[in-house]
Write a structure and sequence with these properties.
The structure holds two protein chains of two kinds. By secondary structure, chain A is an alpha/beta fold. Chain A contains 18 helices and nine strands. By secondary structure, chain B is mainly α. A two-stranded antiparallel sheet of chain B has the order 1-2. The chains are: A alpha/beta, B mainly alpha. Chain A: InterPro entries: Bact_solute-bd_prot1, SBP.
């Protein structure tokens, strides 16, 4: 329950909650009312008698608190208290973080940053962040090289430590596959489309021939688009940091493939993270969905007990990553050394493995993949699938694609303006592509 | 607004004070009212504090108004003249009126403006007509009308967020109640999110639902100030219920109607929460084709999604200017109409004595 939404968009309920709390356009500064530990006389104090309270600012349900990591840290460091502030949605959290960073006040000691925003933060806020690559307790070799690179600024300083990533798999309905005459065993299903997303389309066409009444192959064309671009070696920006979304053949190929899903009637024509999408899980209207590791809990939550034993997880055609986050330490903080130590501890392999075991956020520290919490992890809801092994293999194969400042905006526009129209209104792919490019140019002020 | 009456009053005050003491921070000025009330009698003044006391007493309002009213307005105007990004507000570049000029060929802006006007009309007209009807019903002495009044106001007390979420589910394409009802009636389902008109209608319906009761209560209050003798006289003259409504109730409601039209128009221009939430949390694009993106939503998207503070500020000021221009145009049109009417009445007066005018009065 309460899964963190990785993309800039979040659930409607989250937004509603934000508006209810008055965080709407002004992006106020209300914090999660459920503070783990209010400052009190019993709080730890430093050598001069002052309390050492570190705050961690996150968006969504990050899981640190729920997985008991703060409590564990406070047991290890009795002189430190850790408190968390949380905003439900990243699209409310992120502008506020930027405002606080540029103003140099209102910041938590440790702040979370989503992968879609990390390049922009590093490009524009680097001088306001502390270097973490050399902080005590940080081991560069423990992390996936591409994740480490994403947290490193142009001047070579590593300012952001990776928390989790979103390695891709395909979640599928065994019962529907059986009725459509497709293999149901996960290795055989994986072989259906191994190596090429176009084979995923071919499997979809096979499914369509004998599709059980009222079901389609996948949820949305935008979901396919995100998954396919997520596995490309070059996406929206090139190595020099230039925006190449309009020219990149890989993006256009992903676009055409996703559009083919829509044109062939293989999608349920849904928009991800909307109430209709949630309902479709419960009603079982689609048979597969490209699922990053963090989506498993979401599916379990939305599909409910009725879906138990029906879902399974197979490897995606090509390894890719969708979503994930980082931790940064603002230089305006008063407890920067302590904050860096906390960030290093939270992102260390052992803690990332704990977070995966308890919350399903997949480690960006590859050193954690050998730990039993990951290596032996199976997901009971998904037919005891060896999710640790499946996602670890995907994570190690993710191409090291450059990311740019407006990654989140570009991918969201492609999905929600462009592909959504192809999927839901039947707009011609070329025309929708043009509309998406126009919207991107306007949004990026080009 | 309520400009007409106070304007007259202000005019009178002005002429009176012209004969009184000079304007300015004159302590005697405070006694002006008393003097006016009891002209001729010796002014009885009670010293209650220093000459600055009144300023201190009114200061909190002006301090807060300055901090939260004037300053943001001025800061927004200033920001609109720069290229300013949320990522680095300090590294702004002066661009003059570029942020305004570019709106001329910003198709997204014109689309948002058209959507705002369309949804505004779709929402405001039925809402006010419905409110009139509801108020008329509530005005009748029916049993348990207290309950009905509470019911009428309940939507207004509901939060936008809660209401819009329910409406978003209601207008769901696959499992929504609206389409289910259409299905029962043998009609094809409607894609309420993507239809250019269907989505605007859906957003407008949320506004109608929320504000009808509020406007109805304003009308109801105004209706109860209409003197019953007028109805009595009208019915003696043989006017039907409908004619009474047209010729007694409606003229009595004119100030209330003017007020609600003004408030609804301002509300429609700033429409934000409903379309944002109707998009089901998919950002501020207002639908895949921006089909229900209002100006407020576009402003939010430019400022807090695209992080272009300067452009967002320019849109904000343009919205204000549009309102000013619209209300200015309405005033001018009314003045012209009134002049033409008086000219025509002048002619009629010359031709047929007073009868025409009296007939109209009835």
């Amino acid at each position: 329950m309460g899964w963190r939404r990785r993309r800039t968009r979040g659930g409607a309920y989250g937004l509603a909650l934000a508006l209810l709390l008055g965080l709407g356009p002004a992006a106020g500064c209300a914090m999660d009312p459920a503070e783990p530990r209010p400052v009190s006389a019993r709080d730890p104090v430093d050598g001069r008698g002052r309390p050492v309270t570190l705050t961690v600012g996150v968006f969504g349900t990050f899981g640190f608190q729920e997985a008991g990591l703060y409590d564990a840290y406070m047991r290890l460091h009795p002189d430190v208290a850790v408190r968390q502030t949380s905003l439900t949605r990243n699209d409310v959290y992120y502008p506020q973080l930027l405002t606080h960073l540029t103003a140099g006040s209102g910041l938590a000691d440790v702040q979370a940053v989503e992968v879609g925003n990390i390049a922009e933060v590093l490009a524009t806020q680097a001088e306001r962040l502390d270097e973490l690559g050399t902080a005590p307790g940080v081991d560069r070799r423990a992390f996936l090289p591409w994740k480490w690179a994403q947290g490193t600024a142009a001047d070579g300083r590593t300012l952001a430590l990776g928390t989790d990533i979103g390695p891709q798999a395909v979640c599928y309905r065994k019962d529907l596959f059986a009725r459509a005459g497709l293999p149901t065993e996960r290795d055989a299903v994986g072989r259906l489309w191994a190596g090429d997303w176009r084979k995923y389309l071919a499997a979809g066409l096979r499914y369509r021939e004998r599709a059980p009444e009222g079901t389609v192959f996948t949820d949305s064309a935008s979901g396919v688009l995100a998954a396919v671009t997520g596995s490309a070696a070059l996406r929206y920006y090139d190595e020099r940091g230039d925006l190449i979304v309009a020219e990149n053949p890989a993006v256009r190929a992903a676009w055409d493939l996703a559009a083919a899903f829509a044109r062939q009637g293989l999608t349920a024509r849904l928009q991800q993270f909307t109430p209709g999408w949630d309902q479709a899980f419960a009603n079982g209207t689609f048979a597969t969905i490209a699922c990053p590791a963090w989506m498993l809990g979401y599916i379990e939550d939305k599909a409910g007990p009725a879906g138990r034993g029906r879902w399974d997880v197979a490897p995606a055609p090509r390894p890719g990553s969708w979503g994930g986050s980082f931790l940064v330490v603002p230089s305006a903080g008063r407890r920067r050394a302590e904050a860096a130590r906390l960030a290093a501890w939270l992102t260390a392999p052992a803690q990332q493995a704990t977070l995966f075991a308890r919350r399903g956020s997949f480690p960006s520290a590859s050193a954690a993949y050998a730990l039993p919490e990951v290596a032996d992890a199976r997901h009971p809801y998904f037919g005891d699938a060896p999710v640790g092994a499946i996602f670890a293999r995907a994570a190690l194969g993710v191409p090291r694609a450059p990311i740019g400042p407006k990654d989140a905006l570009v991918s969201q526009t492609l999905a929600d303006v462009g592909m959504l129209q192809v999927d839901q209104t039947g707009r011609a792919p070329d025309s929708a592509w043009h509309a998406a490019m126009q919207a991107i140019d306007n949004a990026l002020d080009r | 607004m309520t400009d007409d009456a106070p304007a007259g009053a202000a005019g009178m005050t002005r002429t009176r004070t012209a004969t009184g003491p000079a304007d300015g921070p004159d302590p005697r000025g405070r006694a002006r009212g008393a003097r006016r009330a009891g002209r001729g009698a010796a002014p009885r003044r009670v010293r209650t504090g220093s000459r600055w006391t009144p300023y201190v007493l009114v200061a909190p309002f002006f301090v807060f108004f300055g901090a939260f009213g004037v300053f943001p307005l001025a800061a927004t105007a200033w920001a609109s003249l720069y290229r300013m990004e949320l990522t680095a507000p300090d590294e702004r570049q002066w661009v003059g009126v570029h942020n305004y000029a570019r709106l001329a060929d910003d198709t997204f802006f014109w689309n948002a403006l058209a959507n705002t006007v369309t949804i505004g009309i779709l929402a405001t007209v039925p809402q006010l007509l419905l409110a009139l009807g509801v108020a008329h019903l509530l005005d009748v002495r029916l049993r348990g009308r207290g309950v009905f009044r509470v019911v009428a106001l309940a939507p207004y007390a509901t939060s936008v967020a809660a209401a819009t979420l329910v409406f978003a589910l209601f207008f769901g394409r696959d499992h929504g109640m609206a389409n289910w009802a259409l299905g029962l009636a043998g009609l094809d389902p409607v894609d309420w999110q993507n239809g250019p008109w269907a989505s605007k209608f859906a957003v407008a319906s949320i506004v109608i639902w929320r504000w009808t009761g509020y406007n109805a209560l304003i009308y109801l209050a105004a209706m109860q100030t209409v003197p019953p003798e007028l109805y009595e006289a009208a019915s003696l003259d043989g006017a039907s219920r409908w004619r009474q409504f047209l010729h007694v109730t409606l003229p009595g409601l004119r100030p209330a109607i003017a007020f609600t039209v003004l408030v609804s128009t301002i509300g429609a221009t700033q429409l934000f929460g409903e379309p944002l939430l109707f998009g089901s949390g998919a950002g501020a694009t207002g639908g895949a084709d921006h089909q229900f993106q209002t100006l407020g939503l576009y402003l939010y998207e430019q400022g807090w999604v695209n992080l272009h503070l300067g452009r967002a500020a320019a849109i904000a000021w343009t919205m204000l200017l549009i309102l000013v221009v619209v209300f200015g145009a309405v005033r001018v049109a009314r003045a012209l109409l009134a002049r033409r009417e008086s000219a025509r009445e002048g002619l009629g007066h010359a031709r047929s004595g007073r009868s025409g005018r009296d007939g109209r009065r009835r």
